Amino acid sequence: MSAADLGFDHVFRPARAAGAPVFLLLHGTGGNEHDLLPLGEALLPDAAMLSPRGQVLERGMPRFFRRLAEGVFDLEDLERRTHELARFVERAAAHYGFEQRQLVAVGFSNGANIAASLLLLEPSTLGGGVLFRAMVPLVPDPLPTLPATPVLLSNGRSDPLVSLEETDRLAALLRRAGADVTLALQPAGHELSSQDIVQAREWLSAVFPQAHHVPR
Question: Is the pLDDT of residue 213 over 60?
Answer without folding.
Answer: no
